[in-house]
Specification:
The structure is a single chain. The protein is an alpha+beta fold. It has three domains: about 150 residues, 2-Layer Sandwich (Uridine Diphospho-n-acetylenolpyruvylglucosamine Reductase, domain 2); about 120 residues, Uridine Diphospho-n-acetylenolpyruvylglucosamine Reductase, domain 3; about 240 residues, FAD-linked oxidases, C-terminal domain (Vanillyl-alcohol Oxidase, Chain A, domain 3, 3-Layer(aba) Sandwich). Helices cover about 30% and strands about 25% of the residues. The protein has 18 helices and 21 strands. The strands form five sheets. Strands 8, 9, 10, 11, 12 and 13 form a six-stranded antiparallel β-sheet that branches. Strands 3-5-7-6 form a four-stranded mixed β-sheet. Helix 14 packs antiparallel against helix 15. The N terminus and C terminus are likely disordered. The protein binds flavin-adenine dinucleotide and 2-acetamido-2-deoxy-beta-D-glucopyranose (NAG) (2 copies). The site of flavin-adenine dinucleotide (FAD) has 36 residues, from strand 6, helix 5 and strand 13. One 2-acetamido-2-deoxy-beta-D-glucopyranose binds next to loops.
Amino acid sequence: MARTRSLGFLILTSFLCVLAAQLQLRPSMAAAGALPRDLFNLGIASRICTDHNSTAKASTDFGHMFEATPEALFHPRTPADIAELIRFSSSSPAPFPVAPLGNGHSGRGQTLAPGGVVVDMRALGRGHHARRVNVSAAGDEPPYYVDAGGEQLWIDVVRATLEHGLAPRVCTDYLHLTVGGTLSNAGIGGQAFRHGPQIASVHELDVITGMGEMVTCSVTKNSELFFAALGGLGQFGVITRARIGLGPAPKRVRWVRLAYSSVVSFTKDQEMLILDRASDFGFDYIEGQVQLKRTLFEGPKSTTFFSYGDITKLIGLASQSGLSTIYYIEGAMYYSEDGTTLVDQALQKMEALLGQLSFEPGFVFSKDVTYVQFLDRVCEEERVLRSAGVWDVPHPWLNLFVPRSRILDFDAGVFKCIFRDSNPAGLILMYPMNKDKWDDRMTTVTPTSDDVFYNVALLWSALSTNDVEQLHRDNKAVLAFLEKANIGYKQYLPHHTSQDGWLQHFGVKWSKIIVLKAKYDPQAILSPGQRMFLSPAKVSSSAVA
Ligand SMILES: Cc1cc2nc3c(=O)[nH]c(=O)nc-3n(C[C@H](O)[C@H](O)[C@H](O)COP(=O)(O)OP(=O)(O)OC[C@H]3O[C@@H](n4cnc5c(N)ncnc54)[C@H](O)[C@@H]3O)c2cc1C
Ligand SMILES: *[C@@H]1O[C@H](CO)[C@@H](O)[C@H](O)[C@H]1NC(C)=O
Ligand SMILES: *[C@@H]1O[C@H](CO)[C@@H](O)[C@H](O)[C@H]1NC(C)=O
């Protein structure tokens, strides 16, 4: 009944002209379940906050597309506190939803828990209790790993491992995300083509199930729960610890962007660079971006990467008749700063590589930074956007995995047709990954056809009321095109508003997901904001997810 589709947009304007667009949840749903009285007799009761200031903090997310206020915000001190809360709910005659909140960087209300309790995971890392990041010490035998609390931010994990000369093999573009939040999706970035998504580097997890059981799991121990929780969208348990494999950390990075006017050359070069045999001569990190011509002409005249001179040069390229888009390969090559021979060797390797690629002659833009500067690069963008007042705006993002064999059709239908003359604020990423680095026993899904698929991320920022509606329409047009052209795509960071959507998303995995849900969260109390299963509070308000 209360399908998201049938809910109206409500748009609030602040005096700063910064907008918060919210798909307003039905009032009946929010009013649904006052929490059972005896919850407040538990030992953890003093950490369950029901005051408006607390609940308001957990009522939306980075996307600012949905809003719903929970009944309470819970600040656990230990994983056992979380287990106690979940055990109470699942064994109660009136179970209520429980949603872990990592850093709240989801985009479609996935952390919301109307009628229930949001668990402030970050509270686990505060205060004077046990260490929440342990790196296997130097002198230990490889494989090296870090044990990190599910609430930890990747930036803190990275800083701790770098002290030992080690780093996670794959990092997301932005590090102010939690370990538990990204592992519940997959965790992708420019190193995933070689090492797979972050979930592929996990050796072991501590998970609290929907019955409040604390389970340690791995490929050899409770493997069913291990695979379910990785990419599990929070549906099977709360990740309180992850043991993550590490590799040696480089000291410095040559970081380049290469501009292309032809999508054919751009994708051909990207696909060559992700081949296993390119590991000797290629980049250690590969992503790519799509630049719409109008955005280049009318957008900022310099960015955190490109100088004023660079943008002027790119405008010259884009001015060629007929071009509506240009493309950048973003590559990084690691090197050690010890000794001039090594630095010279790195430069030679880069020169030799650039000689094999077909970007527009002369359109190489490079930087030389430390590894941590490189990994934390989006933080600098955040600072710029925040100071311009355009960070906390609605983000109607659409993230897609597109099979290699259809990427040119995608480009033609989406960038050269739907967005041909538009000028949306935001960023478009496009880069390929190797499917054989993904473990299909995990919950995350990838396109079923092809050995290579592209991540195409439409990372919009809505700067005005009209933008929210326009971008919403554009995203719908993209999805309609993909269906019509039978592109065989999957959503990453998926959001579906009906079970039918989820069935299509998971395909052959859906029946297994139903079995796993019944086994590990039979009351369907966990992360109801994903709208995958009928949650208890929604049942009582007779609304359907
Ligand atoms: C600026 C920006 C850049 C990004 N870049 C990338 C990128 O490069 N690569 C990439 O893969 N993703 C990227 N993301 C997406 C990001 O991985 C997701 O938004 C994810 O939700 C992580 O955010 P979070 O830790 O704040 O989790 P939240 O948004 O707080 O939670 C996400 C979901 O997971 C559940 N959850 C949270 N913690 C746990 C836990 N411990 N156990 C079980 N379930 C849990 C929540 O209930 C919710 O359903 C980016 C997001 C932003 C905003
Ligand atoms: C709630 O927040 C407001 C504004 O920050 C503050 O003035 C008020 O004292 C807070 N109330 C409580 C109960 O903390
Ligand atoms: C880190 O090690 C300490 C001491 O052994 C332990 O108490 C703590 O639980 C560990 N933390 C994690 C996240 O594994």
